[in-house]
Amino acid sequence: MDLSQFLERVTPPEIQKTVQRSTTKTTVPAYPREYLADLTPWLGIDEEIKELLDPHLNHFSRRFLRAAEVIEDKIDTKSICANESEVVTLGCIVYEDPTLAILREVFSIRCDFTNHRATNNIGDPDRVFFTFNDETTRDRSRAKFLMEYKTPWALRMPTNIITYFNRKRGDQSDKVVKAISQLYGYMTFNNLMHGGLCNYEVLYLLRRTGDTGLQISRPFLYSQRGIEGPIAALTYICHYSATEETFHYSPVERGPPGIHTFVLDDLEVEGTWDEDIKVPWANMKLRLLCPVSKNIATVMSGEVVPRQRRRFRYQKKAFFKVYDITQPSNLEAADAEINAYTDLEALQGKYIPTLYAAGTTLGSLKFLVLEDCGETATDENIDSSFWSRARKAIDAVHACGRVHGDIKLENFAVSNGIVKLIDLGSCRLASETDRSRERSSLRFLKRDWEETQVGDSDR
What residues does the Protein kinase domain cover (predicted)? Predict the structure, then answer.
């Protein structure tokens, strides 16, 4: 089977919904409206798709036939959908799987789609496209492209989405406006150029331009086949995202205001890193550099620097914990962690990180600006003296009537023999029984570590 036959063969089924349930995801905008200008058409995208795929339409591979058969078998069991989660699952089969097959077979791009929690990104997109930095270790790149899926009955696409959006863009109750705003937010939070919005029946590709511009493609209908269909379009945009440094010159200016660097608009905690000087947080920028981890919140390394044309004599390395507070549960978690740092203020800098500042930005993200406490503890960078210092940190938290709530090796940081408890997201008031259990958890960790040391010495 060659590529042209493969593009013709993969035929998405018509969704058979059992219960028409709406979704709450579309009702929460992820980015303030005033940061996005009117939508404009993405002209020339069909020519760009044709330019990429035309030379390869005769590419023959038995893998295409096998992939088509596997996709068809999966479709037979997944075409009945009742909610957004099931639409996402079906979209993964009929849109993502054939796209991945083409990228791997024709362009030798090692890549995949996954859910947002498996990659280091800010926000809560449905699907994230990434490449493998190293095929041997399967190390993932940062997110390259984001997809948002909606149910066709919860998000009915208008005939002319550009005219509709530009007329309704101030209406926060409109689901089309909110869906586009949400995707734009995720694209800008993660400094990405491209995104995709799909209600299964139709796929739109979006491209950021300039500081606040957004272009949108024509609708790619799931009923369209071949080089004009959504699989060809998705293949093009993923290929572009994976190879954008060398493929086509892009007129898009990266990094609109507040993306590479953030400013705290609403301060809840306003601390300092030096007893002799008060930090003018209103005049400081948070410069995010590298993602460290992602769970409920994204942890980023970076530094605090003065804003342009502001004089300030310190430039401080820091860690940033970033919560997407468009999700109510994330807002509660962020507030709980800030409260924990506040209640344990006497321990900051000695047993737990110093909280330099906490606040919101863009009305959608909550930042905790934290002390850089060194390396995360691992089996390789600790010695026997680590455990007594770790116990002192835990005892100090317990003396305040709290438990850390998640004792594991990676929730300690070490630097020049100093050990601090990090990640207070689960810290809470607790009974003596809870505190006893936490001390036991540390003993178990120590026992396991000692056993690995004995095993290493025997080899």
Answer: 262-459
